[in-house]
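Ticket opened by: R.M.
Priority: normal
Category: complex prediction / small molecule

The reporter submitted a protein together with nicotinamide-adenine-dinucleotide and asked that the result be attached to this ticket for the collaborator who will pick it up next week. Submitted input follows.
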Amino acid sequence: MESPTFSGKNVLVTGAGSGIGRQISLDLASLGAFIYLLDINKDGLCETAKLCKSEKIKIIHADLCEFGALEDILIAALEGERLDGLVHCAGVSQLSPLKSLDMDRALNTYLINSHAAIFLSKFCSSYRVISKLGASFVFISSIYGQVGSAANSAYAMSKSAITGLVKSLAIELAPKKIRVNSIVPGFIETSMLNKLSENFDAEYVDRLRALHPLGLGGVSDVSNAIVFLLSQKSRWITGSELVVDGGYTAQ
Ligand code: NAD
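Result attached by the on-call engineer:
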C-alpha cells in the first residue's frame, strides 16, 4: 500500500521524548508533516528532534499535568498555525496492589493518561486551533483498559476512560470533521517495559511475552497504526479502538 503523505499537515505529538511517541514523530517527519513535539523530558525531546532530521519541528517542553499553564504554552508554540492531527502518547504506568496503592500517584496516572486527553481534545478542537479541513485525534490506550490484570487498577482505570472519551467525542466532533480513535497496544518493547523488568523477575517478564501469540510488539507496530488513523485512508473511521496487541486479547 502506498504511504500517505502529510506534507502541509501539522500534528501535535505528546510523549514525543521516548518510546511510541518518538517513533510516530520520526514516521511523521519522514512523511512530510510539521510536528509539535511535547514532553516533560527535555533531553528526550532534543534527541527525538535530532533523530527526525527535519526542519519542520517545534519542541514544547511542558508538563501535561500543569493544566493552568498548558493552554498558553500551546498557543504560543502554535504561533497562529492550525492543527490537522493530535497524537496523545504521553503516559505513565503504575503497578501496585490495591492495598498499597499510593493515591497521589494514582491521581497523577489519571491526570496524564486520561485527563490530559480530554484537555488536549478541548484545546485542539477549538475553532482558533483546528484546521478548517478537519482533523484526526489518536489516543494511546492499553489492553489493560479492556481486560483485567492484578495490581493494575489505577492504570487500567485511566486507560478504560479513553474508551468513553473516544466514543463520545467521535459523535460530538463529527460536525467539525474531527475523527477520534484510539490504539489499544499490547506490550511494546519501550522504556515502560524496561521499568517493569527492573521491578519484576525474568520469569514474570517471560510470562508476559508468552501471553502474546505473535510475541511482544515494537514501537513501529503501534506507529504504523497511528499513521493509518491520522491519514485519509481511515477517513470513514471514528469512535474506534484499534487493537494492536499480537493476539493478547484474542484468547
Ligand atoms: P515511554 O515511557 O517510553 O514514553 C512516555 C512519555 O510520556 C515519556 O517520554 C515521558 O517523559 C512522557 N510523559 C510522562 N509524563 C508526562 C507529563 N506529565 N507531561 C508530558 N510528558 C509526560 O512509554 P511508551 O511505552 O512509549 O508509552 C506511550 C503510551 O503507550 C502510554 O500512554 C502507555 O500507557 C501506552 N502503552 C504502552 C505500552 C507498552 O508496552 N510500552 C503498552 C500499552 C500502552
